[in-house]
Amino acid sequence: MMEVTNWDPLRISGECALMPSAQTRIKTDLRKFYQDPPEGIVVTPCSGNLGKVYAVINGPADTPYEGGFFIFLIAFPTDYPLSPPKVRIINTGGGTVRFGPNLYASGKVCLSIIGTWSGPQWSPIQNLTSVLLSIQSLLNAEPYYNEPGYEQTSNPRASAHYNEMIKHETLRCAVCDVMERKASFPDDLFEIMKVTFLEQYDDYLQACKDGAAKDKMPMRDPFSNSGGTFQFNAIRSRLEALKAKF
């Protein structure tokens, strides 16, 4: 495991001066993103701060992340693109939910191209879009096998249980918490997510109905030893309250 202590974009000052070359490159990255945005990803710059952007990745279909809103804060270093951006996932249930082996409850995103994991390293030819696509690829159908050393193993039962836990926490933290504004992010992103929430509302309810039989049963994250119990009926009540509000 590669230990990196300076990964957090929150540690970069809002007044951090970007080199002129970095400013030009960030503007280029944003322009290219908006010209051809990847499906399921939305980006908005921080108001008055070119060096930081927010991104939302909508959980891909046919994965336990389906329909979730995964919000990331991305900060560009002063010498970008010579150094990679720093990335934090900001909606982790107040630091209690690990959304996968690479997405820590602390907000840390473990990915080699941003220097937080071993493997292929950052190159200036990469950009904002390639970073976001790499993160999106972590939200796959069987995240249990994203854990280093598990890639070549086969444990369908453990993987299925892990998926059920991720599905539950996605509904609880990446849907309900987000729509209840329990995390801080720009208003324009909220308006976009609200539209998506209403479009996917019936799917959320169906997921709660499918999981209701597991209510009160224990769930445990094998990678962080955190736990709790399934609460699909409580999540359904929160979803219904949000729908009535919107």
Question: Can you tell me the number of structural domains?
Answer: 2
Q: List the total number of helices.
A: 5
Distance between the termini: 44 Å
Number of strands: 6
Indicate the percent of residues in helices: 25-40%
Strand order of the main beta sheet, please? 1-2-3-4
CATH topology of the largest domain: Ubiquitin Conjugating Enzyme
The coarse overall form would be globular
Biggest sheet character = 4 strands, antiparallel
- Kindly state the mean pLDDT as a whole number? 93
CATH homologous group name of the largest domain: Ubiquitin Conjugating Enzyme
- Provide the gyration radius in Å: 18 Å
Strand and helix order: HEEEEHHHEEH
| CATH architecture call of the largest domain | Roll
Strand content is 5-15%
Subcellular location: Cytoplasm; Nucleus
Keywords: Apoptosis, ATP-binding, Cytoplasm, Nucleotide-binding, Nucleus, Transferase, Ubl conjugation pathway
Organism: Echinococcus multilocularis
Pfam families: UQ_con
